[in-house]
Structures are given as C-alpha cells and as structure tokens.
Write a structure and sequence with these properties.
Elements: H1 16-24, H2 39-61, E1 71-78, E2 84-91, H3 95-107, H4 109-119, E3 127-132, H5 135-162, H6 171-175
Parallel strand pairs: 2-3
Antiparallel strand pairs: 1-2
Length: about 180
Amino acid sequence: GQSGSGFRSAPRLATSAMLDQRTARLPDCPTARLGKGTMANRRLEQIGDLLRAELSDLLQRELRDPRVGFVTITGVDVSADLRNARVRISCFGEPQEQQESLRALKHASGFLRTEVSKRVRLRTIPALHFMLDHSMAEAEQVQRTLHALQPELAAGAAREVAEPAPGATSDATLDSPPAGERK
C-alpha cells in the first residue's frame, strides 16, 4: 500500500522462518521439508550438539539438585526458529526416580537456559523442554532377548547344516546334466 508521503515500501523477502511456517502446515511430504543434507539442518544439528555438550557440563558441574540422579543427555532437537529445544534424557533407576529427575530438570530449566546463554553466543537461546528417552532401555532389552535366544538360534543353524532343506540339490546333482541332455 501507499502512504500519504508517496514512498512505497520495499518488497518483503521470504525468510527461512517464513518458509518453515508455510511448509509446517503441509502433510508429511518429502518435498515440503528441507532435505537431510541441507545447510539449515546441519546448522540445527550443530546447535543441538553444542547445547547437549554445554547442558551435560552444567549438569555435571553446576546443578546441585539432589533429585537429579544419574542423568545422561542423549540428544537435543532444536526447532527451526531456534526458540525451542527438546532435550532427550536417559535416567538410571526406577521409573519413579526417573520421573523425579525429570521434574527436577524441568524445574531447573530456567537456570540451565540462563547458564547456557552465558557460555554460548546465540541470538536466541532456546527454551529447554526435557523428556525421557527410553531408547537406551529398549536397546538393552533387545540385547537381552537376543542373548537369551542365542542357544536356540545356534541349534537351528546346526540343524540346517546337518540336513538340507527339502527340494535342495546337492553339489553332485548340479554337476550331472539333466536326463536327455549331454554335456
């Protein structure tokens, strides 16, 4: 639009934040999102890794809450606008101890965000949202199951070696020509 002074406003350029807002509304369409190897995603991964390292150090050296047990930060996912960060944690202990550690970290998120802002030069320090990551426990359970099945798998493999499968041919029958044909 024009104002009374006669000046026209400069055309607005589409920023990456505007593009992200437009594509966020689209369904899971691979062309709507940035690809895995793009510069923007790599930058978000770098920021996530930096936040993970700083938060790990803060948990180890600065946080003095007895409710926080043995906690490991398994990953940090940063939103495209850098306003939010999902911090995945793995806790050692019973489920109620894990929930208590999670509550303590959520309570300390403001302190941790302030301390991260003192250590990291970013225009905006993301709000920290802590969540339990059960992938380590699930991987351990799969490992235990595979270990328990080891004797059964070995016995099955030994049976396959001892007796050929029905319809399988041996090496001797492969060398001889079919009936009615010559070599």
